[in-house]
């Protein structure tokens, strides 16, 4: 009966980041001493005031359907966030809450893409972007970065990739999987091209708060005062998962033009309905409450970024760019792969590290960058040291 499956299932495979995570978990549960650099999931607990807000909501009976696109209070919290951080005022019909950042992006792409539409995706990309575009019937158009420090593509790269079928571009800065980030000038040049060519910009800013001291985050919204037309062709995809260590809560949100948010809400109404009522209550506390835990976690990630990059650079044959933000290192292992001793590509190397040395990493090919490995450093300093030293020994 498997032949009954719709053809679109062949367009995608299980999320590789989540698959590695599941494998590492299973090995751990079987008693193995696994160090997992797998899924991008902060190791901190969700701050207490956020949990308490959700508990209070549960206890007071906040257990029913909410409006599909989010409770009025959650929408106000999103509006508050963008006013506080980006000095941009949105109306309730321009913001929306979904079941995780991934769901926000899924809704966005499905609301925008007709079959045959092209979406420009800078390489390396987060694993799910191309799958979402393909599922929507669209074609991902990959653009390679030239600079391996920022991993940013340039406006002229974007211009060259545009065809009459191009509908949108996805920007993700700070970036998963590289930890790179775009500077203001590069983003502004991309904005100008997008405006000139009527290209919609989907800006995934979920790592906004996780930037390191040598770098300043630029939101695409920062360009709206200078280019007012941009507000009608820009959607900011965001979520509470990474900033407040709330991955399991599944609350993503967005801000964009009402014509798009309306369409996304209709899609959501046809699929999941509202995100969990009491998780929204927790997210309100996250977005509007004290932000000191964000800075505490950011500082820890910055320290770990330095630690992991130094340790990785100490492995003969490995190069690694400085991380500007997020919690990923994206070292290049091509030299070691050329020797062929540990596998002929990054997938085989990943397999070797996991099965022989209990080290979980994600192969770069999954992000469109073969020869690399992604290491999430959202784990303790001790685990980072132990894991990378073990890797060095495994590759000696
Ligand atoms: N965004 C995280 C990662 O890249 C979570 C896993 C996922 O949803 O793919 O590891």
Comma- or semicolon-separated keywords:
single chain, 396 residues, alpha/beta, Aspartate Aminotransferase, domain 1, 2 domains, seven-stranded mixed β-sheet, three-stranded antiparallel β-sheet, 13 helices, 41% helix, 12% strand, globular, binds glutamic acid
| Structure class | alpha/beta
- Would you identify the CATH architecture of the largest domain? 3-Layer(aba) Sandwich
Q: Order of strands across the biggest sheet?
A: 2-8-7-6-5-3-4
Oligomer: single chain
Cα distance spanning the termini: 49 Å
What does this protein look like?
- The chain has 396 residues and is of the alpha/beta class.
- The chain folds into 2 domains: 10-39 and 293-394, Aspartate Aminotransferase, domain 1; 49-288, Aspartate Aminotransferase, domain 2, CATH 3.40.640.10.
- 41% of the residues lie in helices and 12% in strands.
- It is built from 13 helices and 12 strands.
- The strands form 3 sheets. The protein has a 7-stranded mixed beta sheet with strand order 2-8-7-6-5-3-4, with helices on both faces.
- It starts with 15 loop residues before the first helix and ends with a helix.
- Bound molecules: glutamic acid.
């Amino acid at each position: 009966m498997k032949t009954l499956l719709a053809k679109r299932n062949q367009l995608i495979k299980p999320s590789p980041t989540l698959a590695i995570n599941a494998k590492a978990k299973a090995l751990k549960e079987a008693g193995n001493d696994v160090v997992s650099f797998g899924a991008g999931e902060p190791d901190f607990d969700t701050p207490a005031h956020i949990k308490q807000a959700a508990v209070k909501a549960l206890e007071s009976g906040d257990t029913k359907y909410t409006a599909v696109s989010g409770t009025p209070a959650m929408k106000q919290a999103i509006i508050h966030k963008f006013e506080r951080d980006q000095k941009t005022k949105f109306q309730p019909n321009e913001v929306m809450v979904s079941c995780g950042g991934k769901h926000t992006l899924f809704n966005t792409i499905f609301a925008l893409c007709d079959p045959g539409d092209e979406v420009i995706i800078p390489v390396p990309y987060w694993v799910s972007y191309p799958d979402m575009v393909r599922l929507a019937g669209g074609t991902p158009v990959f653009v390679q970065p030239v600079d391996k420090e920022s991993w940013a593509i340039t406006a002229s790269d974007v211009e060259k990739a545009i065809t009459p079928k191009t509908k949108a571009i996805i920007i993700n800065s700070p970036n998963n999987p590289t930890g790179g980030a775009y500077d203001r000038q590069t983003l502004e040049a991309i904005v100008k091209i997008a405006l000139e060519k009527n290209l919609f910009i989907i800006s995934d800013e979920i790592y906004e708060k996780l930037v390191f001291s040598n770098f300043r985050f630029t939101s695409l919204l920062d360009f709206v005062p200078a280019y007012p037309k941009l507000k009608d062709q820009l959607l900011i995809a965001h979520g509470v998962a990474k900033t407040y260590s709330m991955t399991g809560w599944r609350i993503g949100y967005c801000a964009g033009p009402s014509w798009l948010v309306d369409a996304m809400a209709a899609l959501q109404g046809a699929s999941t309905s509202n995100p969990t009522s009491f998780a929204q209550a927790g997210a309100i506390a996250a977005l509007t409450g004290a932000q000191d835990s964000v800075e505490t976690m950011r500082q820890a990630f910055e320290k770990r970024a330095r630690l992991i990059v130094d340790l990785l650079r100490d492995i003969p044959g490995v190069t690694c760019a400085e991380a500007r933000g997020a919690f990923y290192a994206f070292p290049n292992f091509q030299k070691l792969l050329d020797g062929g001793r540990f596998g002929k590509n990054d997938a085989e190397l990943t397999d070797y590290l996991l099965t022989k040395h209990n080290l979980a990493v994600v192969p770069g090919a999954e992000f469109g960058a073969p020869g690399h490995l992604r290491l999430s450093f959202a784990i303790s300093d001790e685990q980072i040291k132990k894991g990378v030293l073990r890797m060095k020994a495994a590759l000696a």
